[in-house]
């Protein structure tokens, strides 16, 4: 009996924990519990009641809510308009905006050759909601059941007013709040109703979020349309006590920016929502997007703008946004709610030059304000040039401040002279040259939100200083998941690490940049997971604020999207972590044939091995899913993996091809064939996406991404250059080519990489080290032409173990790798041992060809009792999170690991975030014990290289990013990794195809003198917040070039 009780408890807990809301406090179960409210049971659903005087957007969400219940259970609840006692019908006004700013547009607004100025004739009809159960306006009902769901907005819905009156429900927690909601089960809320679950919003979006929160917990993904996520079905639905609630969001306005929408999104939208020739971004497109934004608990949108004019392309676009409940804005270069330059080219007059065309530009802006005044909007203020450029080289601050003054006068003209401009939401985006205007002294009224921008690559340039944090307009963030510009566009598929997004947004919140967040999402589709994290973090940052928050988010996201078990969700979490880490190392558009070292640390081969393993892991999950779920997994996980892995093969094989051509290896040609094969496969993968679900997503992966010649996207994909050798010609040096590990050189014969002279270079040597993380070394034996041959491998040493002693090479199998290892390090003396290895080729009609190579084994031993990292092959490499001593805490601050951030493992940063800084040597420290056997050139010097996550000097000039480096008791050295930058510009080494943002790392080297071989302690000290360190490399003379740095050293 006890076992049965335990089974029932475990089963119930299992049903309770299998919920689908990301980060929400769970209030849904799929089995009946004590005090739970029944939504669906035994094929019957509780009816839903809403007031006739409710916001139309809430009515739309209620209709979605009913449809969502049907998606989950195949039971559709009734949705009924109910007129409460003393209630009044909804206003006939077109506007759904509750503020005092919604007065009608004056009839004197110009009608000819002007922007659309009236929405009354073009608003969509209200959603079709069934008539009340009875026409009795007293509110008497005779529902089919005793339990109902009641939905409404506080101080808007007469139904909610009556429920509160009848039940004495305490709504003080949401009263007067922004976008908050309360869900509670109440008794006898209405005549004839014994029980109801009531969802009350503090305002229209609060109510909408209350509905969509439950929909998500029931199992309906916000991405059911945009990523084809399949809804997991349930027989029953219950809301647990006390219900779901949420207070005011962390960030007031949370939005996305559709940008750089050609070719992919624009082509897809034109095919999907028009006859193939119409305006692609019409109300059919936007209605889908508005719903998505609200389901994600966003509330704000900058519409597509490069080839579109939001307000003119379709006159339904703007009023429909307000109807749904989405706040509209325009991008940083489009003032006064107008598409610029597109609408100015249609409706404006003269040049876009405020110094010479003030009157016409003001008239243009007036029309934008008149068109937007009835709708909830955030106005972009100021003025920039067309095409994301400055106005001119001689733009002056007085002129720009005058622009703001005149834009404010336009508000008075449109909204009334008695309007307080502070009640009209406004932003000034400090992007590119505009940041310099601010630094040079330009100021705007403090009620205007200052929107601080990143560098287009996810590094926020500046945050509010302490003295700026009390502005009434507050501050916000303009962020990028997509960009067009130097050093290269990146528009294809996701290359953003959520851990980096979390770190940057956490910094923003710690400095009160919380009024408005907007992220450039390009074509939307490649960034689904990242968009949801961005908006969700802005909605409630406490859900994902912990260092482990990103892992938790991805795990819950995988569970919701693919209905995975705990183990499989953890597997997908790992898969996504690897995908984003590999792709964040360097944008696809910046990768070339030599990005990863082709011969040092086996870097390129390891990259390919990792991609192959990741592809296999993703394929395993993909194949395990029910067929209906595979399209969504393909879009959200599998496609970016197989496409990125394929791209890595293209470039790395091209690099190996080029290198082997210089080595006179016949396998050059095989690699050329492989590059071409994978290049064509790239298009096959694109078509696989486009053919999903009968072509639903045709064109969404049209973006070119191979063969950049400069910053702008190529007009077609171009295969990287490959070489071929003559397949019938023998190499001058003979039939066999020998290439040792660690060099691009080849033997026998001459090669520019064998030695500095390029000829008469002597025999090659490879080095084995008992403390190298790579335990063996190899020799590649290759064909030097069409002649087949056999070869033998021999050594004069007993301690060297060879993986093979013979082999055969032919045009069909032109390569074989021979590994050498030390069979027993204990048998070798301390110091250096050398073994001769001879490779001899025998070919018909050819004289024997012998090549001698040397294996050098270096054995070192630290003293007994040492614990820490040990030098191998002249280098000590340490992942920053792998400290050898506990991190100390100073004034409540300690170095903390950020899992998943960075190019290799993770990063560490001082937390909690604040404004606290420390003098050199006084802050919290990271400590690493290490043992070195060598110094640079034997002169007692070592170089400590710190790999820091890219970041800007976001505080004032007195507090640039800084940390200290110290070895033992030597004086600690202050490191300021980023040189000063001009506001709006970049510091030295920042941009360019080999700059900090391209490499996604900042490396700084500090030389320490007087270091002897032996045990030492390295200390990294905090000076300023915001520093995130990924890796530390100590060069004692053996460091060689690579992109990611040497693999981590052995730790004992």
UniProtKB/TrEMBL annotation:
Keyword entries, A-Z: Hydrolase, Signal
Region (Disordered): 81-119
Region forming the signal peptide: 1-21
Segments of skewed composition (Low complexity): 88-119
Domain Gylcosyl hydrolase 115 C-terminal: start-end pairs: 868-1048
Gene3D superfamilies, alphabetized: 1.20.58.2150, 2.60.120.1620, Chitobiase/beta-hexosaminidase domain 2-like, Glycosyl hydrolase family 115
GO molecular function annotation: hydrolase activity
Pfam family, one: GH115_C
Domain of life where this protein originates: Eukaryota
Name of the protein in its database record: Gylcosyl hydrolase 115 C-terminal domain-containing protein
């Amino acid at each position: 009996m006890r076992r049965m009780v335990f089974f029932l408890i475990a089963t119930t807990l299992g049903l309770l924990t299998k919920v689908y809301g990301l980060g929400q406090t769970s209030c849904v179960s799929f089995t009946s519990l004590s005090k739970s409210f029944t939504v669906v049971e035994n094929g019957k659903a509780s009816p839903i009641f809403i007031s006739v005087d409710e916001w139309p957007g809430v009515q739309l969400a209620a209709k979605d809510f009913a449809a969502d219940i049907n998606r989950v259970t195949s039971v559709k609840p009734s949705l009924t308009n109910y007129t409460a006692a003393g209630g009044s019908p909804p206003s006939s006004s077109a506007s759904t905006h509750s503020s005092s700013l919604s007065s009608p547009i004056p009839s004197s607004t110009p009608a000819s050759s002007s922007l659309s100025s009236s929405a009354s004739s073009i608003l969509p009809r209200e959603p079709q909601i069934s008539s009340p159960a009875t026409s009795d306006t007293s509110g008497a009902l005779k529902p089919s059941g005793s339990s109902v769901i009641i939905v409404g907005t506080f101080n808007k819905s007469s139904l909610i007013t009556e429920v509160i009156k009848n039940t004495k429900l305490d709504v003080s927690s949401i009263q007067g709040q922004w976008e908050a909601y309360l869900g509670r089960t109440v008794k006898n809320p209405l005549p004839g109703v014994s029980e109801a679950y009531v969802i009350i919003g503090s305002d229209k979006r609060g109510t909408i979020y209350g509905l969509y929160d439950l929909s998500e917990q029931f199992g309906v993904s916000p991405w059911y349309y945009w990523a084809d996520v399949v809804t997991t079905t349930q027989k029953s639905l219950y809301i647990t006590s006390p219900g779901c609630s949420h207070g005011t969001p962390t960030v007031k306005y949370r939005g996305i920016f559709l940008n750089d929408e050609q070719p992919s999104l624009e082509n897809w939208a034109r095919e999907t929502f028009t006859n193939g020739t119409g305006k692609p971004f019409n109300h059919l497109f936007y209605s889908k997007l508005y719903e998505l934004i609200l389901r994600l608990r966003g509330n704000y949108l900058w519409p597509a703008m490069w080839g579109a004019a939001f307000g003119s392309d379709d006159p339904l676009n703007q009023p429909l946004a307000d109807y749904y409940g989405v706040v509209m804005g325009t991008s940083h270069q489009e003032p006064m709610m107008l598409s610029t330059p597109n609408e100015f080219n249609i409706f404006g007059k003269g040049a876009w030059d405020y110094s010479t065309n003030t009157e016409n530009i003001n008239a243009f802006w007036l029309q934008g304000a008149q068109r937007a005044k009835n709708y909830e909007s955030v106005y972009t203020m100021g003025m920039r040039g067309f095409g994301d450029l400055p106005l001119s080289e001689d733009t002056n601050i007085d002129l720009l401040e005058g622009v703001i003054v005149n834009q404010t006068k336009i508000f008075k003209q449109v909204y009334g002279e008695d309007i307080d401009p502070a009640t009209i939401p406004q932003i000034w985006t400090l992007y590119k040259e505009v940041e310099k205007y601010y630094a040079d002294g330009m100021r705007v009224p403090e009620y205007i939100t200052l929107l601080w921008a990143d560098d287009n690559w996810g590094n926020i340039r500046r945050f509010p200083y302490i003295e700026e944090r009390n502005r009434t307009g507050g501050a916000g963030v303009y962020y990028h998941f997509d960009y067009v510009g130097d050093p290269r566009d990146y528009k294809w598929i996701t290359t953003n690490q959520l851990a980096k997004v979390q770190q940057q947004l956490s910094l923003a919140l710690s400095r009160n940049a919380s009024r408005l967040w907007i992220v450039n999402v390009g074509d939307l589709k490649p960034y689904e997971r990242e968009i949801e994290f961005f908006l969700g973090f802005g909605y409630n940052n406490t859900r994902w604020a912990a260092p482990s928050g990103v892992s938790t988010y991805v795990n819950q996201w995988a569970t919701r999207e693919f209905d995975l078990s705990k183990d499989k969700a953890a597997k997908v979490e790992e898969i996504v972590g690897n995908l984003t880490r590999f792709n964040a190392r360097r944008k696809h558009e910046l990768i070339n044939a030599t990005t990863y070292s082709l011969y040092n640390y086996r870097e390129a081969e390891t990259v390919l091995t990792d991609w192959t393993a990741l592809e296999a892991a993703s394929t395993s999950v993909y194949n395990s899913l029910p067929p209906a779920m595979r399209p969504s997994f393909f879009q959200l996980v599998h496609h970016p993996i197989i496409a990125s892995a394929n791209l890595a093969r293209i470039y790395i094989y091209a690099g190996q091809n080029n290198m082997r051509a210089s080595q006179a290896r016949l396998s050059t040609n095989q690699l050329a064939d492989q590059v071409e094969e994978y290049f064509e496969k790239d298009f096959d993968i694109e078509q696989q996406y486009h053919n999903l679900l009968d072509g639903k997503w045709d064109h969404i992966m049209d973006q070119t991404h191979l063969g950049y010649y400069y910053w702008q996207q190529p007009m077609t994909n171009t295969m990287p250059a490959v070489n071929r050798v003559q397949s019938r010609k023998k190499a001058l040096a003979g039939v066999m080519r020998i290439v040792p590990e660690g060099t691009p050189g080849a033997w026998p014969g001459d090669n520019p990489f064998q030695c500095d002279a390029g000829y008469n270079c002597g025999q090659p040597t490879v080095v084995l080290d008992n403390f190298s993380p790579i335990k063996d070394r190899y020799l590649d034996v290759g064909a030097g032409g069409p002649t087949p041959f056999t070869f033998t491998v021999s050594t004069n040493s007993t301690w060297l173990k060879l993986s093979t002693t013979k082999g055969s090479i032919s045009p069909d199998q032109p390569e074989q790798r021979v590994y050498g290892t030390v069979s027993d390090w204990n048998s070798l003396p301390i110091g250096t041992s050398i073994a001769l290895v001879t490779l001899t080729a025998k070919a018909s009609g050819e004289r024997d060809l012998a090549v001698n190579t040397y294996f050098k084994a270096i054995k070192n031993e630290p003293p007994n009792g040492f614990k820490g990292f040990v030098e191998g092959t002249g280098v000590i490499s340490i992942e920053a999170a792998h400290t050898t001593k506990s991190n100390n805490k100073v004034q409540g601050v300690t170095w903390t690991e950020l899992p998943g951030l960075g190019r290799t493992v993770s990063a560490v940063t001082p937390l909690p975030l604040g404004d606290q800084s420390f003098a050199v040597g006084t802050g919290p420290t990271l400590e690493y014990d290490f043992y070195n056997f060598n110094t640079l050139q034997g002169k007692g010097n070592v170089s400590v290289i710190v790999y820091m996550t890219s970041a800007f000097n976001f505080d004032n000039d007195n507090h640039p990013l800084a940390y200290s480096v110290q070895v033992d008791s030597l004086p600690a050295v202050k490191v300021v990794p980023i040189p000063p930058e001009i506001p709006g510009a970049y510091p030295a080494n920042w941009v360019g195809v080999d700059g900090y943002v391209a490499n996604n790392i900042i490396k700084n080297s500090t030389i320490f003198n007087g270091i002897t071989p032996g045990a030492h302690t390295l200390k990294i000290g905090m000076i300023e917040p915001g520093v995130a360190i990924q890796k530390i490399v100590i060069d004692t003379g053996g460091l060689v070039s690579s992109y990611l740095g040497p693999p981590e050293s052995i730790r004992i």
